[in-house]
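pasting DUF1040 domain-containing protein for the record, 91 residues
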Amino acid sequence: MKYHRLNELLDLLRPAWQQEPDLNLLQFLQKLAQESGFSGPLSELTDDILIYHLKMRDADKYAEIPGRQKDYEADFKTALLRARGVIKDDN
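structre below
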């Protein structure tokens, strides 16, 4: 499973970094950390932060968070009824 995350991070990092070839890797990682709102030392920047930020970097400000779309309900009442089991999923 570790290799899956590594491959995902590299697949996301490569095209983003190619858009800024004048930065070395640490400069680019620092830029990503700042963009994501991370303010700690670079050594504490997690791969989860990088993966999430790279996925959402060019997305619309109001775009759905990856992995959350399946749980999305536009209507609060429907969400509440579904959570209580009144409305059953078709699965």
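The chain has four helices and no strands.
Residues 77 and 83 are 10 Å apart (CA to CA).
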